[in-house]
Amino acid sequence: MAEQINFQIKAIETLELSINQFDGEIPEEMQVGYNYELQHNINVEHQVTAVVCTLKISDQKSKKTFGRLKVACIYHIVDIEKYLSEDKKTVLFPEGFNITLNSITLSTVRGIAYARFQGTYLQNAILPIIDPKSFVLGDPQ
């Protein structure tokens, strides 16, 4: 049985939002691409982990960027110091925990993007559902 980690969302911050000018709506035949990047930043002293998601929406053919959104989901992790490696340089969370954080963060970003893009030509660019496991390197699950 996996170890339970006590955590909660402490804050959600929109760090960047840009929508590039585009005349009209995105044509249906245009292949819209969604490029996600996740970065985990851990602060043991404050017992927090920030998962920063950068989303870029672009035309896959021309590579023209339509919009960009960067959001930080900040999580309070109870007793985070107990997950420190022996050399105190790495935090080693139990199996699957990073996937949980990624999943919550990606869902949050999807909702923020939907709300922020309403009334713009990106309002129908609803982000696809993706496997949060695909973002975790070295997490054995």
What does this protein structure show overall?
By secondary structure, the chain is α+β, with helices and mostly antiparallel strands. It has one domain: SecB-like (Bacterial Protein-export protein SecB, Roll). 15% of the residues lie in helices and 35% in strands. It contains one helix and four strands. It has one helix at residues 97-117, and strands at residues 7-19, 32-43, 48-59, 65-77. The chain has a four-stranded antiparallel sheet, with helices on one face. β3 (48-59) and β4 (65-77) form a beta hairpin. The chain is elongated and about 55 Å long.
Instruction: Report the biggest beta sheet as strand number plus sense, adding barrel if it closes.
Output: 4 strands, antiparallel
**How many separate domains?**
1
Amount of beta strand: 35-45%
CATH fold annotation: Bacterial Protein-export protein SecB
Element string (H = helix, E = strand): EEEEH
* Overall pLDDT metric: 88
Low-confidence stretches: none
The CATH superfamily turns out to be SecB-like
Radius of gyration over alpha carbons? 17 Å
